[in-house]
TrEMBL record:
Pfam families referenced in this protein's UniProt entry, alphabetically: Pyr_redox_2 (PF07992)
Cofactor requirements of the protein: FAD
Residues annotated as domain FAD/NAD(P)-binding: 5-293
Cofactor note (record): Binds 1 FAD per subunit.
Subunit structure: Homodimer.
Protein's name in the database: Ferredoxin--NADP reductase
Keyword Signal in annotation: no
Keywords tagged on the record: FAD, Flavoprotein, NADP, Oxidoreductase
UniProt enzyme class: oxidoreductase
Family stated for the protein in its record: Belongs to the ferredoxin--NADP reductase type 2 family.
Catalytic activity: 2 reduced [2Fe-2S]-[ferredoxin] + NADP(+) + H(+) = 2 oxidized [2Fe-2S]-[ferredoxin] + NADPH
Amino-acid positions noted as binding FAD in the UniProt annotation, renumbered to this chain: 14, 33, 41, 46, 86, 121, 288, 329
Amino acid sequence: MIKTDILIIGAGPTGLFAVFEAGLLKLKCHLIDALPQAGGQCAEIYPKKPIYDIPGFPEILAGDLVNNLMEQIKSFQPGFTLGERAETIKKLDDGTFVVTTNKGTEHHAPIVAIAGGLGSFEPRKPLLDNLSKYEDNGVAYMIKDPEVYRNKRVVIAGGGDSALDWSIFLADIASEVTLIHRRNEFRGALDSVEKVQELKNQGKLNLITPAEIIGLNGENKLESVLVRKISEAKEEMFLEVDHFIPLFGLSPKLGPIGDWGLEIEKNAIKVDTFDYQTNIPGIYAIGDVNTYPGKLKLILCGFHEATLMCQSAFQKIHPDKKYVMKYTTVGGVSGFDGTKKEAPKAVVKKIE
């Protein structure tokens, strides 16, 4: 049985940053993730996707963010159980928990932090009769390597951040990028909407709204898409393309965690914003997996939630100790500039 102070379910950015915050408090962490590597969706689905809202980084690729987080927590030596899904949880008489994976690995900890992102998920697909014919043959639901689209004709459909961000990113890689959305208004960040409009004005991106894809064509691979304008005239046009990427989001599922007796609302775990604890004392939920009034599904919000969760966890694990947070600049963290540094020492002043 694997024993630790905080058992983190989900090794995405929020879960990884929780390791750092726990390490500052001298709490050990172990992470469980169904994926074969750490990083969550950032590593598995879009490692080359640029992220623009990480403080201090005007732009950073999702995969690079994961690499930086892994380097940041290296000195705290977290444990990992990868390629296994958290299946069951049992609360012991002393208030601690045993979490068992689908492969039978048991983990024991006084604190469980669920950082499972969107949970298990599958892409939302457009309702097109012959869609399956072109899957992985011109149609893709996520972008792992942008170089696949270099000098290619690409059509992206969607109105959220992913559709906007990838349209902007591929404008400098593909020979032609066309963004199609059912509405004139977009759901993404205003700055991204403005960048798309600017690229359109510069002739670097085609924007067709309101419109939708109603057909796919091609002998052995995708060769063109049929677009219909959403208007009284219902004008239709064929666009010759090499790739069609519908980015309509993901259909999340909590999986086995949904059966743990936690309070669920709209497929997310309800928490108290004081410390992001669930209705079961000792079990927390941080990042995209949780919900509360005013919730924003942003990585930086997950970082904040992880920080407060660790403070609460420290108090539960050490109820007889008080502490005062001090500056995280007192010590150093190994590996940032290639030199060996000590982990932060005087970050937390403990008062017995």
